[in-house]
Design brief:
alpha+beta, 4-stranded antiparallel sheet
Length: 202
């Protein structure tokens, strides 16, 4: 089950804007490092570290199915993503030494992700952790995560959140922080639709 909340409270809007900006800074930092290694793009969670490294195929669909071997990396399969063909690589082995050097000097990840627990390194998860909102809720078949949106020219925060109301240890009650209001799923969809339409109009 899911529920939906929204707010224009500056406290929460600024918090989400800061997390979004931090994610952008980390991506830019890691992208520049990857380019130095000869790659064109990276694949990573918003507040994590790159897991995949991509090298664009100059010949597109006619390129070989495997890219050139690169020392320290494995894979190289040709993939199609974002309208382009790339060779997709990942770090060989455990990669600890590589990542220790690769992330040195990067903008610091939120402290919620550095406490030794395994959390999805995303903007939504960190936002939920800070406000005590349910995230990573088991529903007997899968894990449901919270999703957080920054809407209307960064003036509104809206959340789609999982919950369970049974007596199991995985149950997560509905949490509505001060300053938020609960809305229907239809109302959330309308807010997102209006947001997208305003972007197109610009």
């Amino acid at each position: 089950m899911r529920y939906y909340i929204k707010t224009t409270d500056p406290r929460y809007v600024e918090m989400l804007k800061e997390l979004t900006a931090l994610a952008g800074e980390r991506y830019a930092f890691f992208k520049a490092r990857a380019v130095e290694l000869g790659f064109d793009e990276i694949g990573m969670h918003e507040l994590g570290v790159p897991v995949f490294f991509f090298k664009q195929c100059a010949d597109g669909a006619t390129a070989p199915r495997k890219g050139p071997k690169i020392a320290g990396f494995k894979g190289g399969d040709r993939v199609y993503d974002g309208g382009k063909y790339h060779f997709k690589y990942s770090v060989s082995g455990r990669g600890k030494a590589f990542y220790d050097a690769f992330v040195a000097g990067a903008p610091t990840a939120p402290e919620e992700l550095t406490k030794g627990n395994f959390y999805r390194p995303s903007i939504s998860t960190v936002f939920c952790l800070r406000l005590g909102l349910p995230d990573g809720v088991f529903d007997e078949r899968s894990i449901q995560f919270g999703t957080v949106f920054l809407l209307h020219d960064k003036t509104m925060v809206a959340c789609s959140l999982p919950f369970r109301d049974d007596d199991s240890k995985e149950a997560a009650p509905v949490v509505i922080p001060d300053g938020f209001e609960e809305i229907t799923e239809r109302a959330l969809v309308e807010e997102i639709k209006k947001h997208n339409e305003s972007i197109k109009a610009d």
